[in-house]
């Protein structure tokens, strides 16, 4: 008599990736606080600043047109850097990461799920902001190859901020302490990176400090697609410096990946 052994076949890697991505998206949209602060806050800021600061900078360019590039950059920062730093720290402190590490799920599936979440939330945030800007404030959308520039600047910026957020999550003890640490720092970067004010009006030493981080370069790259070339003269070097934008954001991607590999942990110390 021949004994037959039943073997359980594990799901394929793409199937695991899809399943984990679905879980990440569901968890995000079920958390009211995450949805409010990540998706609705940039929209509210656009509405408030667009209504209050309704004036022309020069050459017929409104401040709202200038502000659109900055608020999209801030929205990407919230969907990637802040979202990752807080959510991963929370999952580490409540034991979720420790539990996942003990399952057959490959570790890569967890990070793929997080990246899909960031991509989806970023796309929704950008679309909503553009829609509000066009409908209520008459924002001029990019045209032609400017959309290509918009895509790679937003993509590189989101990647750099996501990796940095994952790395920062290992510093915080839990989600609450991560929020208390990351949110003020993100707000500081927004104020000195040309989000709420013209970058040329910020003191030089603040400009220098802001240039150390990806948000300033992401906002500058996005300004190049929303503003006429004449306003490039207001930038520190008198140009959009798209080559340097790509270089700095690329360096932050590499640096963020190195920090993730060296600092990420599945459970509290």
Structure description:
- This protein has one domain.
- Strand 1 and strand 2 form a beta hairpin.
- The longest helix has 31 residues.
- It has 269 residues and is mostly helical.
- 71% of the residues lie in helices and 2% in strands.
- The protein contains 10 helices and 2 strands, in the order H-H-E-E-H-H-H-H-H-H-H-H.
- The N terminus is likely disordered.
- A two-stranded antiparallel sheet has the order 1-2.
- The chain is elongated, with a radius of gyration of 21 Å.
- It is found in: Cell membrane; Membrane.
- Belongs to the ABC-2 integral membrane protein family.
- It comes from Blastococcus aurantiacus.
- Keywords: Antibiotic resistance, Cell membrane, Membrane, Transmembrane, Transmembrane helix, Transport.
- It is a multi-pass membrane protein.
Question: In a few lines, what is going on in this structure?
Answer:
The protein has 269 residues and is mostly helical. The protein has helices spanning 13-30, 32-52, 63-93, 96-101, 107-137, 146-168, 175-192, 204-210, 214-226, 242-263, and strands spanning 56-58, 61-62. α2 (32-52) runs parallel beside α5 (107-137), α3 packs parallel to α6 and α9 (214-226) packs antiparallel against α10 (242-263).
């Amino acid at each position: 008599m021949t004994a037959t052994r039943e073997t359980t076949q594990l799901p394929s890697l793409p199937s695991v990736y899809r399943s984990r991505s679905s879980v990440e998206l569901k968890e995000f949209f079920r958390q009211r606080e995450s949805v409010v602060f990540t998706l609705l806050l940039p929209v509210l800021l656009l509405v408030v600043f667009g209504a209050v600061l309704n004036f022309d900078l020069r050459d017929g360019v409104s401040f709202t047109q200038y502000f659109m590039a900055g608020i999209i950059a801030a929205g990407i920062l919230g969907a990637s850097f802040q979202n990752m730093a807080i959510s991963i720290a929370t999952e580490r402190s409540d034991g979720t990461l420790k539990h996942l590490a003990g399952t057959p799920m490959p570790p890569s599936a967890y990070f793929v799920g997080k990246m899909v979440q960031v991509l989806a939330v970023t796309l929704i945030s950008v679309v909503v902001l553009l829609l509000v800007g066009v409908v209520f404030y008459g924002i001029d959308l990019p045209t032609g190859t400017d959309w290509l520039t918009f895509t790679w600047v937003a993509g590189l910026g989101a990647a750099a901020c996501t990796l940095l957020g994952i790395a920062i999550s290992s510093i915080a003890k839990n989600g609450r302490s991560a929020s208390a640490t990351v949110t003020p720092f993100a707000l500081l970067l927004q104020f000195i990176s040309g989000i709420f004010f013209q970058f040329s009006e910020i003191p030089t030493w603040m400009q220098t400090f802001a240039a150390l981080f990806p948000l300033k370069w992401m906002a500058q790259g996005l300004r190049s697609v929303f503003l006429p070339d004449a306003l490039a003269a207001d930038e520190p070097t008198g140009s959009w410096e798209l080559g340097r934008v790509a270089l700095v954001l690329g360096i932050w991607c590499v640096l963020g990946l190195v920090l993730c590999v060296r600092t990420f942990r599945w459970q509290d110390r």
